[in-house]
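pls design
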């Protein structure tokens, strides 16, 4: 497999050498969907306990893996990491607050779950931790909780810990979308996972938006149709 699609732990090693005992990879999934939540995966490595050499074979950016491959990686990822969590913000919150705020809020929820153990928080305060964030800038902002943040484009492709965070988030969100598909039949959410496939768009035009649709994202899609959209206040979609 080309190194262009295979992650390494080069950045993780560099940060550990600079004194960060704990490394936290963060990536989002579902940002571009028109239904369902946005999810942010949070993956933790303790460099004193988890070997950077032993990340799971076959780990890749979640977008480069099949559903079956992602599912098969969950067990090995869990064994490699010191811990992981997924924070989510639902469609109604995205409509109300905008996607940028939703991303930060999702990350905050994931970090809060991950760091709920008081002993871990104490160890991080004592020994240091660095977040590796997929993206061109620090979209966590204050939600980083005072931790150092290194933002890297294509970190989900290039950094193993961020690849792991992305896979964990993708699998958990996909499972949720299957459940939502059963609760809201007709939209085929279990298949396209909330993204704007042609079948999904036709279903929204025929049925109108469900409670799990991001209605502020549907204006152009439903332009010219007879579907009435609920009124929401959103400044950042």
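designed seq:
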């Amino acid at each position: 497999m080309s190194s262009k699609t295979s992650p390494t732990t080069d950045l993780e090693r560099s940060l550990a050498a600079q004194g960060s005992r704990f490394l936290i990879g963060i990536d989002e999934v579902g940002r571009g969907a028109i239904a369902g939540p946005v999810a942010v995966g949070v993956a933790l490595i303790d460099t004193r306990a988890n070997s950077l050499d032993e990340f799971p074979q076959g780990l890749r950016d979640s977008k480069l893996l099949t559903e079956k491959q992602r599912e098969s990686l969950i067990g090995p990822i869990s064994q490699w990491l010191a811990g992981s969590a997924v924070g989510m913000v639902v469609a109604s919150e995205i409509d109300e607050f905008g996607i940028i705020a939703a991303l930060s809020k999702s990350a905050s929820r994931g970090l809060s779950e991950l760091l709920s153990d008081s002993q871990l928080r104490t160890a991080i305060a004592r020994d240091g931790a660095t977040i590796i964030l997929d993206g061109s800038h620090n979209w966590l902002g204050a939600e980083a909780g005072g931790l150092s943040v290194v933002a890297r484009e294509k970190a989900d492709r290039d950094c193993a810990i961020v690849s792991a965070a992305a896979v964990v988030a993708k699998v958990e969100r996909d499972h949720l979308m299957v459940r939502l598909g059963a609760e809201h039949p007709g939209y085929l959410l279990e298949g396209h996972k909330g993204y704007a496939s042609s079948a999904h768009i036709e279903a929204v035009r025929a049925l109108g938006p469900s409670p799990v649709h991001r209605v502020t994202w549907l204006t152009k899609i439903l332009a010219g149709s007879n579907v009435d959209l609920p009124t929401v206040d959103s400044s950042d979609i």
